[in-house]
Amino acid sequence: MSRRVSARCQRYQPSFVLSYSRGALGSAICVCGHGALGAGLAVLLRDTALDLWGAKAARDDGRYEIVPMVSPQLLRAPLTAFSAALRVPLLGDAIIAWISKDNEVGMVASYVATINHAFFSQILPDARTDRGGAGARAVQHHGVCGASDAFKVSQASPFRYYSIADYTSRYAAGVVTPTEVAKRVLDAVSRSDVATPPLRAFTSILPADVRAQAEESTARYRKGAPLGPLDGVPIAIKDEIDVKGHRMTVGTDFLAATFGAAEEDSIPVARLRAAGAVIIGKTNMHEIGIGTTGLNTHHGTPRNPHNPEYHTGGSSAGSAAAVAAGLVPVAIGVDGGGSIRIPAALCGLVGVKATFGRVACPAPDAPSVAHVGPIATNAKDAAVVYAAVAGAHEAVEESLPQPGVHVPVLSDAAADVARAPLKGVTVGVYEEWVNDAEEEVVAACRKAIEHLKAAGAVVQQVQIPNLRVMNMAHGITILSEMAAAMTKHSANFTRFCAETQVSLKLGEKFSARELLAAQQVRAYHTHVHRELFKDVDLLITPTTAATAPVIDADGLSSSVSDVKETASLMKYIIAGNFVGVPAVTVPAGYSKARGLPIGVQVVADFWQEGRLLEAAKVLEGLLPDGPRRPEVFYDVLQ
Q: What is the pTM of this model?
């Protein structure tokens, strides 16, 4: 943080130092937020040292305090045994109490005793209220059949993804119809599921419904009256959002029977359908969204189209797989701890997590941290879909106090500033944080910073204090919320995979004091970020500290707990969920050895999605020859 920001925050910088004897499972939740918590078993069985936060790094003077961690990977019998032990009434309580004490999970409550902050207010204040769904209106002003400019094609890289405009321009010209495209998509999905290995992007498709939607769109084009820039465009929806006629599994093997078929669309899906989009179906996900890889033992694990031996990232795994493989140009995800941004980054895509409440869609499993948003192949398409789903809705209170949706990247005026689109924009860089990633990831982020400077941005060094405490408080919050949401399904608890069982059992044991303290930390970090964005307009970091993790074949049927892996994927994610500021991830390059995508993340102040998307559009210049063709790709327009 700049000196001026640090001075403003000085009274919120208590002297608070922790000393860990042995890190264990409790440490895992602090950085991970959710998932990969079974590493505690290794501590019990092998006395493995695990210092997630690092005693030497536990300082609250604004210096960088997160250090690398070492922990074992657990799967199969050890992970299953640990999850079973936690279900034994007295034994489970004793294990969790020991882990919590050993890792000083109570540090959050102790920390807030040293700061002067009330509890976090869920409703973000703003000068005016938009109750009319301004996002939908913004989309209507965007051209229906404009030519795609997502990536320029060169002789060195003939491949590029199809954009939304590629679909609608072909429809308008009569080259192909939405009906024909829908048939091709359905065929491609079927082929992808019998490939070796299967892609497993979708969990639910109603072919007759898809064909009916496409026929209606085809009829509109024949009359010369498409509804807008999304008419006839195939879109996929993550399987924790209601889609009329579909059952919602949330990645489990039993919740579909509990919920039954949805009687109506959720608000974002209804807005997409009203814009003419063809809803293909529901996409696969990490079970109940409580992990970062996308591994699913019930529906099969989605594969990364760039290399099927690697994970897509999660939890919106199927949404990212479907877009990266060309099955759809855009999909909708849900992000409670990076679940849009992580898979988008690992699959070479753009992912948008807007300000909390910007997209009206209640998330009962994690109501205070979850956000709905698009995953797309380029910034303009992400902007179109973001604008379509954003805006207030009377039925969702937290969505009401928001300004109108402003998306300059969709305006023709954007071309007027093409030479220096970010002139006057200040970009914050937390040097030590950016450097705390794999070498190729750091290099890609450095290149992105220089690219923003070339577009007119001014770079300013910043610091963000107490990242360690924020990560821990987010973990307490999301696990408590998810455990509470799953209590009603306790009769089916053992049908969750072992990793999920461990996470939920831990979430059940946080005290009211710890949960309330976490909300005070949230209020504190909301203050910190508001002060930060008084000095800078944007903040840039890597999206993940590493590229996509390899799929462990032994864990496909039993689930896997890998704290180190999860910590690496979530290192830069938390503020977007816990504080609620908007963030976008953009492709920034590929690893040399395996050609796996690398993403960079840009974060902005509340409600500044328009500025974020402008930066995302600029950052597409990091790939001047366009993206690389994924190893798994289906061409549905040819």
A: 0.89
